[in-house]
Amino acid sequence: xxxxxxxxxxxxxxxxKGNHPKVPLFFxxxxxxxxxxxxxxxxxxxxxxxxxxxxxxxxxxxxxxxxELKNML
Length: 73
Known about the structure:
Blueprint lengths: L2 H17 L2 H10 L7 E7 L5 E7 L2 H13 L1
Antiparallel strand pairs: 1-2
C-alpha cells in the first residue's frame, strides 16, 4: 500500500471520528464481543427510505482482521 494513501486514510478517519464520535465507540464495544459464529449485519437506509441490508457469519479467518481493526480504534 502506498504510504501516502495510508496517511490520507488516517486523516479521513480522524475527520470521520470527529463528525461521528459515537460510531468508533460502538465499533470498539462491538468488536470486543465478536467471536466465531457471531453475525454482523449492516443496513443502509437511503434518503428515499430504501433499505439495503447484508450480513455475514464470522469464521476463524475473519477474527484476525477484526483484531487488527480493533487495534486501529
